[in-house]
Each structure stands twice: as structure tokens, then as C-alpha cells.
Amino acid sequence: MPSIVIVGAQWGDEGKGKVVDLLAERADAVIRFQGGNNAGHTIVRNGETWKFHLIPSGILYPGKTCVIGNGVVVDPKVLLSELDGLRARGVDVSGLKISANAHVIMPYHIILDHSGEARLGKLEIGTTKRGIGPAYADKASRLGIRVQDMLDEKILKKKILSALEPKKALLRPYERDPDFGPQLDLQRMTEDLLTFGHRLEQHIADTAALVWRALDDDKLVVFEGAQGALLDIDHGTYPFVTSSNPVAAAACTGSGIGPKDIDEVWGVAKAYSTRVGAGPFPSELHDETGELIRERGGEFGTTTGRARRTGWMDLVALRYAARINSLTALSITKLDVLSGFDRVKVCTRYRGEDDARFDTFPYHQSVLHHATAEYEELPGWREDISECRSIADLPQAARDYLDWIADQTGVPVTLVGVGPGREQTLWTEAGAASPAIVAAPVQA
Ligand code: GDP
Ligand code: IMO
Ligand code: MG
């Protein structure tokens, strides 16, 4: 039975949570493999909204094995409050497993994230200020605290001391700050972490072994990406990126499997584009059309509440995302938001400063920063499509728009979102025929 990786094919917030929830019903295990609580994944079921930052989007199925893999950075305080919130709403969270090797976001990481952004001033990246970058930096510097360290007081204290040593000068101004100072006290930090560790202990496990077992037993395994291809630290619009690899390859390193264990890679993309935070965005709209898309699409961040920047679909970026992820399928969400336009535009290539044209994603930062979008226009549709329940119900112009995206990217579309609800999902022929769907029918 296949294993599927679900990744963001744009700048994040494409609707990965919804797609993972749809597939999770059929799956034996759902695994987050990178990022941290910079992610915000939304699921809407029977009118009820659920937002996940760290816990995999399969948790709403009672007892489902949901893994936080070794590649994730975990803020234990956020994880515990997410768990408490789910329990309070009656969700069975017994299936949650946390890798003992995942790294911990410490209070000083959050402070350093704030101070780093403040230092950059106008050039700030616009991070979520959740400590993601500094936590991954410590991991690479071999100064990270891992989940397993929260279970051993002696090791923990020693590791915190070593981690704090090179940061002393940067943290000094915060020591007297009434908000930040107390969090930097070594004793308090150690005690807090031990308490968190104690509360999470029942969930801490050798998660790679769990994933291997599910694969060996021929079960459907779903890997849940966070962020998106253009935020990838290697392949995205560096330095305006996150600090992990949101591309499909990271499902391997972030969970403990090899590339041959992956059968399908589904890229999730909105029918248009959005971006939160700073950085190049060639198809960005600064006019009332952009405002209209923001309003209709409810484009305000799940994690920080920031207004998302909006623009037309960018095929140069999407083709690039297809290549760097080996996408086998595309899931197009929020098609309903494009209803009401006489014409819809799609960016098909970039124009550089000196009138050079780019059909492929430019590697050079100066080119990218000055790139403007060239568009093709397609007929729009005026009908409300949120009640459509099959592709055949869609207006011809909407179907043509989807066919055109598939054609231009060379990647088949498996499902289309016409609203946030589970039922507002249209499966295409390619989707229904996908090995994951055929091999893992929903259990009655
Ligand atoms: P993620 O980070 O990729 O999981 O995406 P987010 O949850 O941050 O943002 C996607 C938003 O769009 C959420 O509010 C979803 O409920 C919503 N959404 C997902 N699919 C659709 C869709 O097809 N149509 C509409 N209108 N909203 C959708
Ligand atoms: P999901 O999983 C959209 C963006 C931030 C910022 C940059 C770096 O919900 O799609 P970080 O805090 O990671 O150091 O910030 O990355 N960013 C996201 N944008 N969706 C996300 O996650 C994001 N996670 C980080 O806005 O520009
Ligand atoms: Mg999100």
C-alpha cells in the first residue's frame, strides 16, 4: 500500500491540513516531519473549526497514530496546551507519538527570534517569532536540547548551560526585562522542562520504528508537510524562508525513512497565491483585486493573524515546486474564492530588470527580487461553486482553468477544494484512480 507525502507547493497556508484530514481517514499513521508551531493547519468538520500547530492533522480520528517526527522542532508548552485543548473538546489523543530525537524550542530561542527580527529592522523576514530559526540553528550547531533530554535532569541542565554559553551577550539585555528575564533563569528553565517532559512522557517514543512497522505492514502512511516549497531553506526565496526543508525529501530525514519508501507526493496549491511575511512575490496584487481575494479567501494567518499578501496563480513557481518535490499530483484548493471574476490571470513567466524573460524559476536573488509577472488571461466564472459536489457540476470556465494548470505543470489534479469543509472537496478522475485512494478505501 502506498505512502503519500503532502506538501505545500507555494508559500504555505495552501490547505494542507484539509487534504491531510481527508487522507488520514484511510491511513494507518500520519507523520509531521519538519517545521514547528510556525505552522497553522485548519480543518473544518461539520461547521466546527480545528487549528493545529504541532499535532498532525489526523488526530481527529480516535486513536489514530499521529507522529511528531525527529525533524520537527517542538515547543513543549505549545504542544501541551494543544493537547489540553483537544482533550477539553473530547478528542482521544492517545495515538500521539513524539520522537525522542526531535529538538526542543527553548525560551531563549523565542527571545532570539524576536531580537533577530528587531535587529534587521526594515529588512526583517517577518518570521512567526516562535523561535523556529534559532532552534534549528542550535540543532545544526550541536547545541540543541532534544525531547529525550527533558526526561533527565542532569543531562538537561548541562546541555542548557552549554547552549546558553555562546548566547550570553545577545541575551544580556533581556535578563532585566520583566517579560523575558524570568524565563532565562537556569533553575526555572530546567524545572519547567522536567515538568513538561513528565507530562509528555507517555507520548515519547522511537517514532522511526513505528513508521517502519506501518510501512512493512503495507499500511497507508501519510506524511504531513508544513510551510511550502518557496519557503524552503535551500530552494526557496532565501533569506526570506523558514529554517527547515518543507520539500518532500525532508519526509525521509524528518521521520527516518528512505526515498524508496515514498510512493506519491501531492502538492497542495491554492487557485491563486498568498504569502505571509517579507520576500519576493512576483504575482502579488497591490490593488482592489488583491484586497477582494484577501477578503473572500479569509486570508489572515492561522498562527499570527497577519493579513496575507495575495496575488494570481504563479505557474513559474508552481512548475518549480513540481520539480523540486517530484510531485505526482496537485490538489487545488480555494477555487471558490475565484468565483465572480470576468477574467482570471495566471502568471506564466517572469520579466527581469533588463527585459529578460524567465520561464523557469531564477536562481539569482537579484533577478528574483526585480522579477515582475507576465500573465495569460483566461475566462472567469460568476457562479457560486461552493455547493458543487463533483467536477461535472463546475462551470466550464472553472474546469478549463483546472485543465490548464494541469497542462502547464504536467501534473494531474487529484482534488479540488470549493470551500473549507470536508464535503466541499471534488475528486477528479485522476484522484479517484490514485493508488492511495484505490488501495486504501475508507472503512465503512
Ligand atoms: P495549511 O497551513 O496549508 O494547512 O492551510 P491553513 O489552514 O493555514 O489555511 C488554509 C485556509 O483555507 C483555512 O482556513 C482552511 O479552512 C481554508 N480552506 C481550505 N480549503 C479551502 C477551500 O477549498 N475553499 C475555501 N474557501 N477555504 C479553504
Ligand atoms: P503552514 O504550515 C505560511 C513564514 C513566515 C516567514 C517565514 C519564516 O501553516 O503553511 P519562521 O517563523 O518559520 O522562521 O518564519 O516563513 N511561515 C509561514 N507562512 N504558512 C506557514 O506554515 C508558515 N511558517 C512559516 O511568515 O515569512
Ligand atoms: Mg497554515
Short description:
The chain has helices at residues 16-24, 76-88, 107-120, 132-140, 153-164, 168-175, 186-200, 207-216, 250-253, 288-297, 315-325, 365-370, 396-409, 429-432, 435-439; strands at 3-8, 29-32, 41-45, 48-52, 65-68, 73-74, 96-99, 103-104, 204-205, 221-224, 264-270, 273-275, 309-311, 313-314, 329-333, 343-351, 357-358, 372-379, 413-417, 425-427. It has 15 helices and 20 strands.
List its salient traits.
single chain; 444 residues; 10-stranded mixed β-sheet; binds magnesium ion; binds guanosine-5'-diphosphate; alpha/beta; Adenylosuccinate Synthetase, subunit A, domain 2; Adenylosuccinate Synthetase, Chain A, domain 3; binds 6-O-phosphoryl inosine monophosphate
Note the overall shape.
Answer: globular
- Count of individual beta strands: 20
As an assembly, this protein is: single chain
Low-confidence spans: none
Number of domain units: 2
Radius of gyration: 22 Å
Q: What's the name of the CATH homologous superfamily of the largest domain?
A: Adenylosuccinate Synthetase, subunit A, domain 3
The class by helix and strand makeup works out as: alpha/beta
Strand order of the largest sheet: 9-7-5-2-10-1-11-15-19-20
- Look up the CATH topology of the largest domain: Adenylosuccinate Synthetase, Chain A, domain 3
